[in-house]
Design goal:
- This protein is an all-alpha fold.
- The protein is about 95% helix and about 0% strand.
- It has a domain at about 75-225: Four Helix Bundle (Hemerythrin (Met), subunit A).
- The radius of gyration is 44 Å and the shape is rod-shaped.
Length: about 230
């Protein structure tokens, strides 16, 4: 009987030990699997954290690039129009003042003499002064075109096309201005007020065209800056 009990106890103990070992193996396997899952999760989190940081850096870099591009282009556009405004003001004021002085001198010298030689001298002097004005206007126009060439390096195709139209309008204005200046001595001498007025009207129309393209160019540049 005792041997039977001992056998039963041993059998139960063996079964318990076997069960314990099996369960422990399962638990160890689960722990190992859980550790793998945790490690894998951490790796995935680390990977996506790095990718997120990279995306943030790329986004910040893109924003910085766009900000630099915007500010750089804006500064160059503003500088160009400040130059253009100053050029227009200075050129208009200077031309009007010099023109008034030339005409006053001509009228004084021409009308205060009856001698043909002195009258011809007054006409020649006026023509020479008009040529100087024309030469100065040509130099100023070259400066404007140099400035527009700088803008072409950063501008869109639409802006470049409008710059071309503005340059053509400047050329037309200069041509009309030169004609007005060159015609003026003989027109004044002949008292041809009608032709003087016609030349002046043509010059004003050319000036309006310059302003039109100038305003359209500003609108295009603003639109281009908004798209950056």
């Amino acid at each position: 009987m005792e041997l039977y009990l001992i056998g039963v106890i041993i059998a139960i103990s063996a079964l318990y030990i076997k069960t314990y070992i099996q369960e422990k193996a399962k638990i160890d396997a689960l722990k190992s699997e859980n550790k793998k899952l945790i490690d894998q999760t951490e790796k995935i989190k680390s990977k996506y954290s790095k990718e997120l940081e990279e995306l943030k850096k790329e986004h910040q870099l893109e924003i910085s690039k766009r900000r630099y591009k915007y500010e750089s282009k804006r500064d160059q556009y503003v500088s160009f129009f400040q130059f253009l405004d100053q050029f227009t003001k200075d050129n208009t004021t200077k031309s009007q003042e010099k023109m008034a002085l030339i005409i006053n001198d001509f009228m004084t010298n021409f009308l205060n003499t009856q001698e043909h030689e002195h009258q011809m001298k007054a006409i020649t002097t006026m023509s020479n002064e008009m040529q100087k004005l024309t030469f100065e206007a040509n130099k100023d126009l070259i400066r404007v075109k140099q400035e527009t060439n700088t803008i072409r390096l950063i501008a869109s195709e639409k802006v470049i096309q409008k710059l071309d139209m503005l340059n053509l309008a400047f050329d037309k204005t200069l041509a009309d201005s030169n004609k007005t200046l060159n015609d003026l001595p003989s027109l004044i001498m002949n008292g041809d007020d009608h032709s003087i007025n016609q030349n002046q009207k043509q010059l004003e129309e050319s000036g309006k065209l310059v302003k039109k393209y100038n305003d359209e160019l500003i609108a295009l540049m603003r639109e281009e800056l908004d798209e950056i």
